[in-house]
Structure formats: C-alpha cells, structure tokens
Amino acid sequence: MKLFRWEQRTISRNAFLALILICFVLVVHEIFGEHGWLALRRERREYESLRQRIEQLQQENQKLEQQIRALKSDPKAIEKQAREQLRLARPGEIIYTLPEKPPQTPPPAPPDK
Fold first, then answer.
1. How large a percentage of the chain has pLDDT more than 90?
2. DSSP element (H, E) containing 45
3. Among 64, 74, 87, 109, which residue is least crowded by beta carbons within 10 Å?
4. How far is CA 98 from the centre of its chain?
5. Does 36 have pLDDT greater than 50?
6. What are phi and psi of 111, to 5 degrees?
7. Residue 77, C-beta contacts closer than 8 angstroms, at least 6 positions apart
C-alpha cells in the first residue's frame, strides 16, 4: 500500500510539472511565435509606415491633379511650364543659362614637413 501512495504522489507531481512545462511552452509560443506578440508589434509598425506612405502619395496625387487642371485651363501655368522645362521664350527675349556647379571637393591638405 505504501508503494502505491508513493506512485500516486510521483504521478501527480510529474503531471503538475508537465502542466507547468506546457503552460511555459504556450506562453513562449504566444510571445515569439509566427503570429505572436512580437510579430503583431512588427506588423503594426509596418502598417503605420504604409499608412503614412499612402497619405504622402495621396497628397502628391492631389498636387499633380491641381497641376493638370492648371495646365489644361490656365495660360500662365502653361507659359511657366514652357519657360522652365522647355526653355522657351517670347520673341525678343534672351534666355541665359548658367552652367551647373561641379561638386565641391575640399582642398588637399598641405604635406607635413
């Protein structure tokens, strides 16, 4: 009878330890798993970044739509575009174009004596 009681204690202790181990594994999986807490945080950051990019693109689209409307109907906008991009001028006007500046490099250091 004493042997049976010892086996019963051992079995219940082992079952308790197994339950704790299973709970630990589930918690670790819930944090580090493929769809766990860390993955959720990463997805939220990516979602926020994409949402901001969408807002930027929508604003850019609005500006381009305004520019298209202006080019279709506003003669001043058409003239401005022709002058800036095509380098066109009215009769009698002279256009001066300055050369682009080359990138500045720092002067060489004097040699040590």
1. 39
2. helix 37-73
3. 109
4. 38
5. yes
6. -65, 145
7. 67, 70, 71
Q: Are 32 and 38 spatial neighbours (Cβ–Cβ below 8 Å)? A: yes
CA distance 48 to 96: 47
- Cα–chain-centroid distance for residue 32? 23
Taking the C-alpha atoms of residue 99 and residue 92, their distance in angstroms, rounded to an integer, is 23
Q: Give the tens place of pLDDT for each residue, 50-99.
A: 999 999 999 999 999 999 999 899 888 888 888 888 878 888 888 787 88
66/72 Cα distance (integer angstroms)? 10
Q: DSSP letter for 79, please.
A: H
- The first and second tokens of residue 58, run together, are 């929508």
Burial class (CB in 10 A: 0-12, 13-18, 19+), 101: exposed
pTM over 0.70: no
What distance in Å separates the CA atoms of residue 76 and residue 102, rounded to the nearest whole number? 33
Let me know: does 31 contact 38? Beta carbons within 8 Å.
Answer: yes
